[in-house]
Task: structure prediction
Amino acid sequence: MPTKWNFEAEYIQSCNCAWGCPCNFDALPTTGSCEALVSWHIKKGTFGTTKLDGTTFAWGLWWPRA
Result:
């Protein structure tokens, strides 16, 4: 059985696409590749019995020829 998880978070992203980021709508990136910085701050959450409250993490992403 999979581990149960959930969270409530603040989320922010920035990328090199046109405003609205077509990648979020199942479309190709504006420039042919996507470069993004994405960050979450979990206000309240769990992964199984592990509390995630207060966890902050970020990803730097690059999808060439996406």
Q: What stands out?
A: The longest strand covers residues 34-47. The chain has a mean pLDDT of 91.
